[in-house]
């Protein structure tokens, strides 16, 4: 019996001698620790990014194709001419944006004890981060559907090896 007179001890292996009433507090504490670790990880990420920017002298090697970035920039009819360094700056900004969103999305996947990044993880990262508000309508959150795969064609099995064998139904 615990202090309240209840016989509510956790079964062996779950957290022996810990009353069930303590689980919400333990979970909340564990969640706070995880969030603090994520914040520290993001702070270290951005510190590394700033250090890398300050030390960069060679702007010729980009991980994103500059021609494609320039083409996207020219898609705006108001843009007439583009200085040579503008696509380079955009490429670096896009790379940093993708890295930041990936870090935040991965943190959500880890919170849910998964090792596979899913669309819902990206949507959660967008929802949790104010600067990503402009993406809320582009990547809608699918509450409760992240683990439910429905075979397409109303239950018909998809061909073997089809990478799109399952899709998610949006509510």
TrEMBL record:
One of its GO terms (cellular component) is nucleus. Residues 63-126 form the Transcription factor CBF/NF-Y/archaeal histone domain. GO terms for molecular function: DNA-binding transcription factor activity, RNA polymerase II-specific; protein heterodimerization activity; RNA polymerase II cis-regulatory region sequence-specific DNA binding. Gene3D superfamilies: Histone, subunit A. Keywords: DNA-binding, Nucleus, Transcription, Transcription regulation. InterPro entries: CBFA_NFYB_domain, Histone-fold, Transcr_DNA_Rep_Reg. It is found in: Nucleus. It holds the Pfam family CBFD_NFYB_HMF. Belongs to the NFYC/HAP5 subunit family. This is Transcription factor CBF/NF-Y/archaeal histone domain-containing protein. It comes from Dendrobium nobile. The lineage of its organism: Eukaryota, Viridiplantae, Streptophyta, Embryophyta, Tracheophyta.
